[in-house]
Write a structure and sequence with these properties.
Oligomer: single chain
Largest sheet: none
Helix content: over 70%
CATH superfamily: Amino acid/polyamine transporter I
Radius of gyration: 24 Å
Number of domains: 1
Order of helices and strands: HHHHHHHHHHHHHHHHHHHH
Length: 456
């Protein structure tokens, strides 16, 4: 029965009061449930392989590269940290989607659908590139430690860090190991805090971001190639895919069939949150490292940085002890995060190529060849430091190997992720295809440019 106008007027105060009471109850319930806290906890629960992949991208070698960019060009190339984000995110999401949709790692999918010879060549090149990167990162960690404790022997530190990393990979359960990597990713915030402790002209930074520029000089082109090469790197592709599979196995999906048919839209949604968050943090850290070095080293005429340790030491007179210590701790933390990722990603590629049992969730005796590749990669990384290979040459060799293999792997990733017979309803859509093929084009051009410049 409709209310009369008079009745509506007199009912209004009561209705307003009633709604106020209901809102008050809702607010009280929200406070009891601590919804913001629950939201943060849920977000942290979702983060996993994407976060650790993004964090591992900012390894000591990457830090050295970003530091050199800031020191030699100021804010001139800081726009690369924004330009690379959608490209990196699109490729890593494809890798993750391949793992979720097929229940198999990247190498296993390439082996199943494309030439084995191409796969074997790519896996071998990846192993060589990762060995050089492991060697460079072990050396950087040792140098970083000696900045704070100069009395400790360099070779001892290299061995200690390598052995400690191996012990975690081989003897820790995957559940605990993945948690260790996830929490270790938080060390990246050291670089953000170091930027906040330095006097930076943010209007200059904004101008450099909004008006990107570069010349075609050999020096700048090599720097651009180095940044993109260390940001969109093959070892991240294999790691991301295999970690999605490892996470499914951790949930109880032991067989490939189980993993394929249990993937849901919610799994894909959570994966996207994880991957794009991880890539955002990775590029954000790149942004702040370039900003710090531009504001301190470039403005004071220090234009050449050879290692991440050099960058930390050079910061000390201009940025103070706080930024110096944060920068140094970041080298150690990112090293402990990235070295296992480098070794394991190479092992995933090699082991899946030859059909060996793979997985960090397996015990040593269950996957002896898989762990054997990890041990070999770590051993060779140690050897590179013992023979005194120059860290810059080490990174150059790594860049050449990555430059050779990266366009091939990227091409295969986009092809696999776009195939309905492989991916089903989780295949690439229009936007993913665009960014995927655009990334293939950019990285092919840059890889060719880098190889030409480095070999001349």
């Amino acid at each position: 029965m409709r209310k009369s106008l008079l009745e509506k007027i007199f009912s209004a105060p009561s209705e307003i009061l009633e709604r106020g009471v209901e809102v008050g109850k809702d607010i009280e319930q929200d406070l009891k449930e601590e919804k913001p806290v629950k939201a943060v906890r849920e977000y942290w629960r979702i983060l996993g392989p994407g976060l650790t992949t993004g964090a591992a991208d900012d390894d000591p070698s990457g830090i050295a590269t970003y530091s050199q960019v800031g020191a030699s060009t100021g804010f001139g190339l800081i726009w690369l940290s924004i330009f690379s984000y959608p490209l990196m995110g699109a490729i890593q999401e494809m890798c993750a989607r391949i793992g979720l949709a097929t229940g198999s790692g990247l190498a296993a999918n390439i082996k199943k659908h494309y030439s084995k010879k191409v796969l074997y060549l790519c896996a071998l090149m990846l192993l060589l590139a990762n060995v050089f990167n492991i060697g460079a990162n072990l050396g950087a960690m040792a140098e970083g430690t000696r900045l704070i404790f100069p009395q400790i022997n360099f070779v001892f530190l290299v061995f200690a860090f390598a052995i400690l990393s191996l012990l975690f990979q081989i003897f820790a359960s995957y559940k605990n190991y993945s948690k260790y990597l996830k929490y270790l990713a938080l060390v990246l915030f050291a670089y953000i805090f170091s930027a906040l402790s330095v006097d930076i002209n943010w209007s200059d930074v904004l101008s450099a971001v909004l008006r990107p520029s570069f010349d075609f000089s050999k020096e700048q082109m090599i720097l651009i190639c180095a940044v993109m090469g260390t940001t969109i790197s093959p070892y991240l592709f294999f790691w991301q895919t295999s970690q999605e599979v490892e996470e499914q196995i951790l949930k109880g999906d032991k067989t490939e069939e189980d993993r394929r048919f249990k993937t849901t839209e919610l799994d894909i949604k959570n994966m996207r949150i994880d991957v794009w968050s991880g890539m955002f943090i990775s590029n954000l850290v790149m942004f702040f490292i370039i900003a710090v070095c531009a504001a301190t080293l470039y403005t004071n005429g220090i234009l050449n940085i050879n290692t991440s340790g050099d960058a930390a030491l050079a910061l000390k007179p201009f940025a103070g002890n706080f930024a110096y210590i944060l920068f140094t701790l970041g080298i150690l933390g990112t090293g402990f995060l990235s070295i296992p990722v480098l070794a394991a990603s190479a092992s995933y590629a090699i082991s899946e190529s030859f059909g060996w049992k793979t997985g960090l969730y397996r015990k040593l005796k269950q996957a002896s060849a898989f762990y054997g590749v990890i041990i070999l990669a770590m051993f060779l990384g140690i050897v590179l430091n013992l023979i005194g290979l120059n860290p810059i040459k080490t990174l150059i060799y790594s860049a050449v190997f990555n430059g050779l293999v990266s366009p091939i792997i990227l091409f295969l990733i986009v092809r696999i992720a776009s195939r309905e017979d492989v991916m089903g309803k989780y295949k690439n859509r229009t936007a993913s295809k665009f960014f995927g093929w655009f990334t293939v084009g950019v990285m092919t051009l840059l890889s060719a440019t880098a190889i030409i410049f480095l070999l001349l």
